[in-house]
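Morning. Coffee machine broken again, so started the prediction first thing and wrote up yesterday's gels while waiting. Chain of 278 residues, entered below exactly as on the submission form.
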Amino acid sequence: MLELHNLTKVYRNSEKALDNVTLSIPQGQMVGLIGPSGAGKSTLIRCVNRLVEPTSGEVRLSGRALTGLKSRELRIARRRIGMIFQEYALIERLSVMENVLSGRLGYVSFWTSFTRRFGPEDIRRAFGLLDRVGLLSHADKRADALSGGQRQRVGIARALAQEPELLLVDEPTASLDPKTSRQIMRLLSEICAERGLPAVVNIHDVPLARQFMQRIIGLRAGRIVFDGPPSALTEDELTLIYGLEDWAAMRRDVEEDERASEEARRDRAGSHIAEAVA
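Came back before lunch.
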């Protein structure tokens, strides 16, 4: 379980990015953070693993306070927190397999990490994870030869290689097309359910959050202004989170984009069939 108690972050310019945020996330729950730019979503995620130092408050994972840990203890604790990034954060010149194995670096000696000579158990685990995310046949490809959706799958496998107790996911679909975005979110939700993993997902796409999250937390100016199931996220609640917006028009735009993507897919499939027949 992840617990935040009165978590506050004030930057040097006196901007309060988080304002006494208190919440708990049980095992296996996938939680979406939504809100306008500057609401504190990314700051909250980064305060959990202390990539950003909280000004005050407490973060606890499985009962252990992370906010009081010193450098060596913090490095050990971070091994159990998988991070999935918007821009993938892969080492482009390395293979897919090597990128996944980098998730084990916190568990091996300096010499092993330097030479990248991982043990058979780590390699077996990495092959299994690549199979799970649908990239087993790409294991030897360089990371820079992959599509955006494939790179994100590598990032997911790398995070899982840490054997985490928690997943932190920062805008995983921001660089992806609508169809690939749904595939990535479906994969994440299945993995969290299979492994009983809690996940905190910073997501800018409200329809995706509604479709795949079990719980949605709306942030505005560093404060929680909504916390509930997707079914409770009404247009009034969205207005409270984001301000005035034509949410009905937004839903229509999303539906039209999905229809256009599906029609384009069918057109491509039809052209391939016609070429094969010819």
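Residues 210 and 233 are 8 Å apart (CA to CA). Going to sketch it on the whiteboard this afternoon.
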